[in-house]
Amino acid sequence: MSAETSFSKAPPAAAVAAADFLDTRLGVAKAVKGLARKLFPDHWSFLLGEIALYSFIVILISGTFLTMFFVPSVAEVRYPMDALPVTMRGQQMSEAFASTLNMSFHVRGGLLMRQIHHWAALVFIGAIVVHMMRVFFTGAFRKPRELNYVIGFSMLIMGLLAGLTGYSLPDDVLSGNGLRITDGVVKSIPIIGSYLSYMVFGGEFPGTDTIPRMYTLHILLIPGLILAMVGAHLFLVFWHKHTQYPGPGRTHKNVVGYPLFPVYTAKAGGFFFIVFGVLALMGATMSINSVWNYGPFDPSLVSAGAQPDWYMLFLEGSLRLMPGAAEVVIGGYTLSLNVLIPAVVVPGVLFTLLGAYPFVEAFATKDTGEHHVLDRPRNVPTRTAIGVAILSAFFVLLGGGANDLLATQFQLSINAITLVFRVLFFVLPFVAFIVTKRICLGLQRKDREVSLHGHETGRVVRFASGEYIEVHQPLDEYERWIRVGHDVYRPLEIEPAEDLNGVRRPGHGKDKIRARVSQFFYQDRVEPVTPAELAAASAHGEHDALPALPADRPSEELDARVH
Amino acid sequence: MSIEHREHVGEVTTTPERFENPGISPHRPRLSDEDPRAAKRAERQTILIFTLSILATVGGIVGYFAFPIQAPSLGNVRMSTLTLGLGLGIGMLGIGVAAVHWAKSLMSDVERVEERHVQRSDDATRAAAVEILSTGAAESNIARRPLLKGALGTALALAPLSFLVPLIGNLGADWNVSKFRHTAWAPVNGKLRRLATDPSDRPIKPSDVTIGSVVHVMPQGLPDEPGYLEEKAKAVVLLIRLDPRDLNEPEDRKDWSYEGIVAYSKICTHVGCPVALYERQTHHLLCPCHQSTFDVANQAKVVFGPAKRALPQLPIALDEEGYLVAQSDFLEPVGPSFWERER
Fold first, then answer.
1. Is B308 in Cβ contact with A327 (below 8 Å)?
2. Which of A139, A531, B67, B168 could form a disulfide with B15 if both were Cys (CB 3.0 to 4.6 A apart)?
3. Cβ distance B43 to A78 under 8 Å?
4. What is the pTM of this model?
5. At residue B230, does pLDDT exceed 50?
6. Taking CB atoms and an 8 Å cutoff, what residues of chain A touch B91?
7. Is residue B336 scored above 80 in pLDDT?
């Protein structure tokens, strides 16, 4: 029974009345007509962005719960003697910390919501990062989607800020030391650093203003901005229509998929509940940020082996790997390059590279067409290699952030680990670049081979002449299209510096740079098989006349016939 | 330069230069498309999963009432969190899994095709837009009155100052960043400050500190003073006793220690974490945040890690009653470096 035939019944009168009410006031029929059957292509990797969106909604819901019980104040209180947990009774602490304990132990569902909130935040940023990797490696950022890429990139930055401000709120020992590190980083900024530190903390660290201020940023300003950007991001997804993976029937001019109503209403809507469900189960069964184990913030305490939330780990690693010798005093002024480079310059470069990448690639290709069919990463070896190189540097920083745990878990010298990571940070990206590019080119050659000669079948046949061959199964046109349908860029050839009359051409210098970038991107390439090549490869005579799969008789019999 | 365009340029041959897009591959029906029994089974499975969700939600609510949280019962906290969480989790998961199962097994999976429209407006629309804007600009007379334009721009640029100046002006309280240079160890009214334990605030005699031990100390009476946490964040000090023979002291610091007892700032010179780990064998202090390592036997100089400067040393002595006191404040700013530090 297909969906079409089941709609023959007349809709109930109440629904008609409601629809009429809405349509005569808002014209909703027009929106339904325009949007409800909009098509969306299907692929598991398109769910990554949805995970980010849905975990953000879970963050908003669980966060609203938490705001009802959290007190954003560092006023000193003594924790009541009849309250849980026992270890905290009678301790001096801030109201922020006390209210965090109270909502965990004396509000039913409070601990659950705290844990869901924290897990959802970790998943939120994780999903953004993985979604961004998908967008990067498949070239979904290409025209016309560059601006949406920038919006998404800004949401990543906002997400990090949301995480940093939220992590600091409970005012426990760990979050306090996180703020202490923030203070040290801010102070390292030349000229204005000391004043910026005063600005952040309302005076000297830790001060009494930080937590109320961070609270406002965390629950109002940052989520408001993210929400606005989510709106813009989704609007543009609708406006451009979703990208699609290459495949038979897919072109830059069409979109192939299933309609929003009912298929995606059910699938994407259902997926929201799946994400919510998984996060709720995580919150129910996996404890996270048990602040009563750390105790209230005290500037003289720290716990060994402490790790920040995962998305801050690369910064932590960056700080750990930098040698201290980089701090210099110039003309009596201290320039803390040992802090400034790892905490400001390294993430700055990393994020600038990522944010600017679509424009760099567009510069190299000079391509002004719209792209709606995604790239298979192997078909753009240089981009894929750049992405993996950046990721490899990122992973070295993550490793650096965990160097103390690596040392204690694997009985290694922390100094040796740190030295190795220092070297790897510079070496690994180059190695990753070369290796990835070679793997991509190899995969493309494999695609060519399969397109030309078909799949191996494992059937070996002997000819009357005594020659053995393996029978190959040629691809059908749908399967072949995936391997031969893509376009390949070639390095740009620039016009000569002077025209026929010997007059210098304006813009030649820029073109020379462009040619060099283009050369870097597209010099090494494997072009897809053409029909002519396939025809030539098929002209092997009797080998190709063999049926690839014997339809109804065992292979021995067929072999005997060939003999 | 998309390669698609080159298709028609090639020489006259029978084979095209590129393969043709074969169009969407034929639809393969699912089991539930062809077998009504499979469709019925999928329907029953969907209903079952929805039912699980309903039961889980009811179970979670029952858990809310079954496990009231009253002190002192950690068990109820645990059970309440678990039942509410499982109820919420399975309740949500059930809806999601059932909806997706429904979509995948019972809703049409025939792919459809829709045309895309290029983002660029056609030339006529563009021309019309330019026309509208230039008409509007002409009607506003802005092009012919540059002073007006300038006045508008200046007013717009300045107006936010009324918001920003008081905001930024107040954010940093008194902006007196020279506070970074002073700690609570400075003598009060000529009276040297005693070293005291944290949190009991008891003064310390040299005999309380055995060789190899390490205690963190504060100026006595600090907890009762205003700005306690801010002062503590600068003043906290590690008191360590070494065998005097292990201690390598330069001439000008010979009288900063007392019989092998030395006092160093606990605040890391990297980004300010408390330097909490002491290794007795090597006399090394390690900061757990970023692993800067300081050699206590050698004026707490950096031996490894991202810190550049040694931990500042607090000169100590005995007062008339035999308690340890600070001879003066630190002679350099403690904690992370900042721009004006050396001035």
1. yes
2. A531
3. no
4. 0.92
5. yes
6. 277
7. yes
